[in-house]
Amino acid sequence: xxxxxxxxxxxxxxxxxxxxxxxxxxxxxxxxxxxxxxxxxxxxxxxxxxxxxxxxxxxxxxxxxxxxxxxxxxxxxxxxxxxxxxxxxxxxxxxxxxxxxxxxxxxxxxxxxxxxxxxxxxxxxxxxxxxxxxxxxxxxxxxxxxxxxxxxxxxxxxxxxxxxxxxxxxxxxxxxxxxxxxxxxxxxxxxxxxxxxxxxxxxxxxxxxxxxxxxxxxxxxxxxxxxxxxxxxxxxxxxxxxxxxxxxxxxxxxxxxxxxxxxxxxxxxxxxxxxxxxxxxxxxxxxxxxxxxxxxxxxxxxxxxxxxxxxxxxxxxxxxxxxxxxxxxxxxxxxxxxxxxxxxxxxxxxx
Length: 351
Fold this sequence. Notes:
It is globular, with a radius of gyration of 20 Å. The strands form three sheets. A five-stranded antiparallel beta sheet has the order 1-2-3-5-4. The chain folds into two domains: 4-120, Phosphorylase Kinase, domain 1 (2-Layer Sandwich), CATH 3.30.200.20; 129-350, Aminoglycoside 3'-phosphotransferase, Chain: A, domain 2, CATH 3.90.1200. The chain is of the alpha+beta class. It contains twelve helices and ten strands. 44% of the residues lie in helices and 15% in strands.
């Protein structure tokens, strides 16, 4: 574990520091740095090193991920141990997880909250776009990857070696009643003119009766991504898919990821046309990965329950992270789609 002085801000990376993190035998003469990505809880850059002639070989380009410069975002990450989770995922879980994630070339973290991850550059892969949405073929691919992750850790909720992933005995990791109830009034005021009456009414009811949603289902827990949406996916021209942004990884219930993706990445009209097929795609992949006891009835029930998951994220995250123009559009788009999802599934009856 490196000291706080050894982990630079991404715009101040020096060749020697990068070489040390990549490992013995690497010697770098220069490094170019270019900001990439739209993440709000971390800062990401593309690093292009020039290696000395005698150096061991290294990647031609690297994605470097660091703690956010914004103090509010860093405070949220610290409170929920988000940086620890992402570094821990790559160090301890990625090889076992079966899901396609970028390779990790090196990592560092200290007790101040500073961290660095050196990750595979998947360019020219296309980054998904939550606002534009996802195509049915890409969604099927993503759900197959989710099934592989869930199956790899199915029923591991009480595994002592995974307790560092515990986020509280909640149906949805990180989101207890306090989060929504404290965030919703400010969100309602901030975006009042941009919301429909349905959006306001569903969120009012969820805030009022949140405990009915937050009860833990009687299902096995597994590792879940918890921000499983197109912005956190890289789609390769060769048909590959890499899932990124593992800061929210936790012990949870599989349908959180399924409902969050399907409910938030399609317009309501498009979702209605494909969701039954997508649910079956996920279930078939889960069974293929070795989980035989979870059937379609259970998936339908859990999918309905977790149609609220995206509302939690849209409202809670919007009021906690640094506000941006794209963030406003994204959170409102998410809320609109997830509210329609709740209504369509009849999930209001849960409350």
